[in-house]
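User: Predict the complex.
Assistant: Input components as received:
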Amino acid sequence: MYSKTVIAEQAKHHDCFYLYDESKILQSIETMKQTFPQVTFLYSLKCNPNPHVIRSVFSQGFGADAASLGEVLLSKEAGLTKDQIYYSAPGKTTAELREGMKYAHLIADSLPEIERIDKLSAEQGVVTEIGVRINPDVAFYGGKALPSKSGVDEDQFFAFLKENNCKHIRITGIHAHLKSQVLDAAALASYQKNILALAERVQEACGRELAYVNLGSGVGIPFASNESPMDMSVLQASAKEYFDAFLAAHPNTKLFIETGRYTVGKSGVYVTKVVDKKVSCGVKYAILKNTFNGFVRPSIGVMVGKYNDDPIAIEPMFTCKDAFQILTLKEADTPVEKVTLVGNLCTAADVIAEDIELPELDFDDVIIITNAGAYAAVVSPMQFSLHTKPAELFLRTDGTIIE
Ligand SMILES: *Cc1c(COP(=O)(O)O)cnc(C)c1O
């Protein structure tokens, strides 16, 4: 699943680093395209905005799901046009809206935000086409809607449409996203069907077709060894039936699907090294370069395992007992030992594994942690204690590495 020679070579130059493998990114993209041939994909930059990663993803025809003005600007710098960038996030400031609308389609996240965009547009003497994020009446797994800080409740949105006095905005799209990291294909397919039905109702209420319906994300990746990958054939069959029917009825409407984690999550590994070893009260410790402050999720996993049985609740810090495989470059016949892996911070929080069996480790040995392509570097507190940050390396399909 990764090249040991490449890792060993890079470990000579870096004490700790992320390695993103472009060929794996392209494979995931290919699977997504085969599953949903009807849609345009938007890459959710927040999971990994590494400039080489985003350029590779954008080169495959993906647009941007930007969750901040910074992500809008990064997407623009990477070459995307306004029609390819969708800026959807709660709590945008007026300055961010003003700047964002130059380079992206705004997706309003609340009724007051719609009014602010209307006012900004009036000041500029323009009519701005916007999308609106909706919190649908039906929750992800069915049942009544749940309270959410994201989007406008469906009933409030329809009430707004009835009395809409905003003359300087035109609603041309809707966006819904209720859940990430889903592995239950039937549940995701059913959610997508609900959003298409919602789009029909919105089109009816507006008396015209929408330019786009953004179905949000959802496709997850297996972390723990007892999880199975998403059954993409179920999604494909459902899309063939329902997406095709929707598009046949509304040929001018585009369908968007957002994806971050599925596209890049499995493409990355985090590599670090043993910097010290000791035994304390019978427990063997290997101390590693930057763990909590390099790739935080495994440490969160250890904490969560102690205090909480419902780890999904803290996504994207999600983790669970064996969510991240820990591998070495040792020869297969190396004797094994039980070891506790900790980081080099002056806090007890950076434990990434307790008492696991690994080949006997020496000073400078390499440790590889999987599933480090999404919500990894970006969510790790790298300023903590001012250690040198891990490098981020990108392995191109031609075998060259760029930093
Ligand atoms: C985070 C997020 C995504 C991306 O989710 P992934 O699980 O990384 O695919 C998509 N849409 C919205 C609105 C999000 O907040």
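The mean pLDDT is 95.
Let me know if you want any component modeled separately.
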